[in-house]
Every structure is written in structure tokens, then in C-alpha cells.
Amino acid sequence: MRLAAALFFFFLSLAHVAEAGTRIKDITDLKGVRVNQIVGYGLVVGLNGTGDTLRNSPFTQQSVQAMLDRMGINIRGSQNEPRTRNVAAVMVTAELPPFASKGSRFDVTVSSIGDAKSLAGGSLVLTPLAGADQKIYAAAQGQVTISGYLAKGAAESITSGIPTRGRIPNGAIVEQDAPGAFSEDMPLEFELRNPDFTTAVRIMDVINEFAKDRYGMPIARAKDQQSVMIRKPPRMLSSRLLAEIGELEVDPDQSARVVIDERTGTIVIGSEVRISTVAVAHGNITVRVTETPKVSQPAPFSRGGETVVVPDTEVDVHEAGGAVQITRGANLRELVAALNRMGLKPLGIIAILQAMKTAGALQAELVVQ
């Protein structure tokens, strides 16, 4: 519980640091400037016996045969078909950066689609990467780097992380310019990553205050909760204007939200969450059932007696906690302190927050993952 309290107050300290301001370019995107997702199918070779089983992964065997055919090696119809486990079929995914030009490099992610055990030590063979329009924009190749590992023996194996997925830093080269281009005539419009009217108005005010001092005129207008439009001043380059605006700091508003992950016991409470006055009682009931079989034998020299097993059952019920406490969280710090005073574990806090929401005392959106 001390660790949970320490983590809560650690995040509180981060919240106070965040109040100093966030740069506009860190919470917005320029409309029309976007990444493009690309994907490809390829082979990772050079694995140390941890690749696909060709008998169970026919697509891997077909891919190996097709690759060797292109290199002038024909193994089709031979009596000894390849049974190597040094090859794995993979999907290669990446995000093509905006305005990427020919020759530029970017990272790719490699994921196994067969029954390979690990991609450690493997190299991706040249793989074309295409977009949703079926056009090839890049080609990937290189050494696969993974964060997990697999250690296997005769009777036991240990796996850490995900050894069947890895990355190739700067493993892709752009072969065709990315769609779209930046021009001085394109409209300038910032799109908020977390749409909110308050944040949009704050961004507009900060930009206009800067523009009045620099250009002598307001240039920003909040279009809606997601967009802030910018009017470029005369004889001003768009790139310089965006660079100057992007460095301006603003305090983004936060919605009152509580996010719960019941699988891991993770609880994230926003700083704007409020709790109405409510009485809370929480207790854990533990029921222990103990079976102690006993043997019953007949008296010596008795007739017709039988030896039987007589069950002996003991039931013990223990209830911990259960005290009723008045909880009222005027802010996040008081709410966390009240929950910690009750001595609750994460699962208990999750149950109480869900009950508070049902009772109408939790003045926030409850998101259960």
C-alpha cells in the first residue's frame, strides 16, 4: 500500500510540473500533415533453429521456393524437400513520415505470422512496402532487433518479452515520395489531439497575444473544439510561422475521467475528478473449508463391523474491514488520501469507484478497460 501511495503522489508531482505549460506542437497536429501506414510480407533468415516449421507453415515453404526461383535455384519436385527451421514468415509494418522523399530512412516493425519461436539473430530479406493504394513506397531490409528472449532446455523453457516481434532501426528506404506536399498556399489549421473547447480557446488566446506583439494583428480563430485556424500575415513564410507558434506554451484542460484496467489492477485518476459526500464500507470475507478424513474401525472381536472413512469438515469464516467511513474528495490529493486511509488494495479501490459511479457520487467519466 505504501508503494501505491507513493505512485499516486508521484503522478501528482508530475501533474504539478505539467501545469507549467505544454508546447502547442506537442498537443496539436497540422491539418493535412499526416503519416501513412504501409505494410509488406517478407522472410527473416539466419535464425538458429527457431524459425517456422515448414510442414506446419506451408506459406513459408512456398515463399522460400519462390525466393530461390527468382535467384535461379530450382528445388521444386526434388525428393529431399527443405526442412530448415532457419526461416520465418513475417509481416513488416511501418509509418511513412509525412513529406518523406526518396532516399530517406525510417524504422520498421517485424512480426512473425507462423510458428516461429524467436526472431533473434535473424535478418529481413528485401521486402517491398505498399500503402492502402497498393503502390510501393519503400523497401525494408536489415538485422532484426528484439527485446525479448527464449531459453529452452530438454524439459523447461523460459520466455521473456515477445521474441517473435522486433524492429529494424532505419531499416526502410523510401523509393517513392510520400503523398502530399507542403506549400505556402495551403491553409494553416491546427487540430487538437484531445478535442476540447477550453483548450482550443486557450490556444487561440495564446497565439493572438503573441501575434499582436509580433505582427500587430490577431491571426488565430477557434473553429470548434478540435480546430484552430491560422491566418498567415503578409510576407511571412508558413514554415517560420508554424515554428514560432509551435513553441508557444498553453495549459491544456483535462476532462474529469477515471480509467480502470481490471486485468492489471491499474487505476488512473484525472486531476479534475470530484467526489460528492458519500459513506463507504468495504470488507473482504474469507471462507476456509478444511477436510480431515478420519478412519473408524469396529471394536475388537465384533461381528459385522466394517472399517469406514468418516469425513470431518471444519468451516472458518473471517471478515476483514467493513468499517463505514465518510469519503469526500474535493480534489485528487484528498481523494487518494481518503482511499489510502481505508487500507485498500487496487482491486478494492476499483470496486469502490464503480460503486461510487453507480451511486452518482463520482463526478467523472468512468472508463473500464
UniProtKB/TrEMBL annotation:
Keywords: Bacterial flagellum, Cell projection, Cilium, Flagellum, Periplasm, Signal. It comes from Hyphomicrobium facile. The gene is flgI. NCBIfam families: PRK05303.1. This is Flagellar P-ring protein. GO terms for cellular component: bacterial-type flagellum basal body, distal rod, P ring; outer membrane-bounded periplasmic space. One of its GO terms (biological process) is bacterial-type flagellum-dependent cell motility. The basal body constitutes a major portion of the flagellar organelle and consists of four rings (L,P,S, and M) mounted on a central rod. Pfam families: FlgI. It comes from the Bacteria. InterPro entries: Flag_FlgI (IPR001782). Residues 1-20 form the signal peptide. It is found in: Bacterial flagellum basal body. GO terms for molecular function: structural molecule activity. Assembles around the rod to form the L-ring and probably protects the motor/basal body from shearing forces during rotation. Belongs to the FlgI family.
